[in-house]
Amino acid sequence: MSGAAQVEIVEVGPRDGFQSIGPLIPTPTKIALIEQLHAAGIRRMETTSFVSASALPQLADAPAIVAAVARMPTLDSQVLVPTARHAERALAAGARHLSAVLSVSERHNMGNVRRTPMESVADYTQMVAMMPADASMRLNLATSFDCPHVGRIDRDAVLALLEPLVAASADVEIALCDTTGHADPAQVRGLFAAAADRFPQVRAWAFHGHDTYGLGAANVLAAWDVGIRIFDAAVAGLGGCPFAPGATGNVATEDLIWMFDHMGVETGIDLQKLVDAARAVAELPGAQVGGRVRQALGARACLAAS
């Protein structure tokens, strides 16, 4: 599709999705699913997270995952790190694309990493300083739209927190995250437009959304309308934040690929192979899945077979 508009999909199912599943997923199963997603054309993936094993035992195998994906040279594997200490662990394990996270909401940030947002800003500054020359950073700003404890987040609060974060480094990709899935298209469009206008020096912006109220794809399209071209999504709609009770999964990757394919936007991802991977993910014990395209294509296939 030469000359077509393009979008970059960041598959976050192996991190945001897997962390929400209760029964431990064997490491070889995780690696096999990551390989299946890669075979579908996904070239950027949040594969794991370096966090406390007692808090999220599902991700205790992070070093093994980093070692396995290192054998996939065409995969850009990013790993989530909530603190500088965990960033050190990730770098020591060989990770070279870190994804830092802090929350706009003080209550959410305290619940997540037991520190205030400004304390996390100081911690993030340490992360930026320790980054090797061959490594890159993404910054996830959680609860940019809504907090499970205090409700809707004021736009000015997001912009105010971005000031010291951008001052620490503008050479990062910043994702504004709808952690609870409460955002609406007008709010998404307005915040991204305001952030891009206030901080034109930021290298790139991304959107991370959940589908709690069925607006995941609509919010992605709203961000697209104001120039955002990087979107997080989770295969089969997996996801849910342990520190945001009631939040359901991320917007399903296959739903976004269906939408962008029909808009004539190039994704580089094979929808049928992706749906096959989504069906495998949906069979994981304890997986809570979402999305519509997987089910619609399955129903179409059953109708054709009959």
Overall 3D form: globular
Radius of gyration: 18 Å
Largest sheet: 6 strands, parallel
In DSSP terms (H or I, runs of 4 or more residues), the helix count works out at: 12
Let me know the number of strands.
10
According to CATH, the homologous superfamily is Aldolase class I
User: Could you estimate the helical fraction of the residues in percent?
Assistant: 40-55%
Query: Which whole number gives the mean pLDDT?
Result: 94
| CATH hierarchy: architecture | Alpha-Beta Barrel
In N-to-C order, the SSE pattern is EHHEHEHEHHEEEHEHEHEHHH
CATH class: Alpha Beta
Estimate what percentage of residues fall within beta strands.
15-25%
Span of the ends, CA to CA: 34 Å
Total tally of structural domains: 1
Structural class: alpha/beta
- Ranges where pLDDT stays below 50 over 5 or more residues in a row are none
The CATH topology name reads TIM Barrel
Strand line-up of the largest beta sheet: 2-3-4-5-8-9
Your description of this structure?
The chain is an alpha/beta fold and 306 residues long. The chain has a single domain, classed as Aldolase class I (TIM Barrel). 43% of the residues lie in helices and 16% in strands. It has twelve helices and ten strands. The chain has helices spanning 13-17, 27-39, 62-69, 84-93, 106-113, 117-130, 155-168, 185-198, 216-225, 253-263, 271-282, 293-305; strands spanning 8-11, 44-49, 76-81, 97-103, 136-142, 146-147, 151-152, 173-178, 204-209, 230-233. It has a six-stranded parallel beta sheet. A two-stranded parallel ribbon has the order 1-10. It has a two-stranded antiparallel ribbon with strand order 6-7. Helix 2 packs parallel to helix 3 (62-69), helix 6 (117-130) runs parallel beside helix 7 (155-168) and helix 8 (185-198) packs parallel to helix 9. It is globular, with a radius of gyration of 18 Å. The mean pLDDT is 94.
